[in-house]
Amino acid sequence: MKRTFIASLALAGILAFAPATVSAQDAAPAEAPAAAAAPAEAGQIEKAADAEKSAGGHSEFYTVLFGSGWLGTVLWAALFSALGYFIYLAIDSSILVRASKIMPQALIDNVKSAMSEGDVQKALTVCENDPTPMANILKAAFLHVAEGYDIIQEAVSAAADLETERIMQRLAWISVCANIAPQLGLLGTVQGMIMAFANLGTGGTPDVGMLATNISQALYTTAGGLTTSIPAVCSFYFFRNRANQIILRMEATTMELIKDLRNVQVEA
What we know:
85% helix; 9 helices; mainly alpha; rod-shaped; single chain
């Protein structure tokens, strides 16, 4: 009886311990994914913290601007200079390339008044006191009035070509900015790609941050060059067409004003 009772207690103990062992074994695999997920969550938290830190610090453009070497800094200085010079030229051209600045109505009225009186000397004095391109052309005509109408026409044509060239030379600098800006951007693109491939060719693990900076240098300089070039091209053609229209009007008005010189006789 004692042996039977002891055997029964031992069997009951084994049955009571078995479920606890099984449940512990089943719980172990469940804890393994949780333990594996913990580092992943920690990595995500660390990345988020790094992103917030970078957002609170320097911007990506600041890093590209000062983190691409001395050549990149020189390129950005040249790009900003081209942009600033273009803005200056655009403002200057918008002020000077106007009919009121090239052929002012007051000059035309004064010359017409003097020519209606037959006073060439008065018309010449009016032109000498006016620094505009049309005044220079008319002055060339009045200075050669005693040499015949053919000489007057040649003098007017030469003076008109000179004044036209002066106006176009001013506008040509806008074209220079439009042409040089994308070339600087292309040079920055080449420099960024060279630095990126040099980083990849180190043989070890590439610096991902530096690689991103190099690629950003390539893209940002291209965008900077196009940002300057596109409005510069549009401005150049706009002001050039406006200048051509004003010059044609000026030449027609000049010929209308000097047509009375055919019969003018000036005493020596």
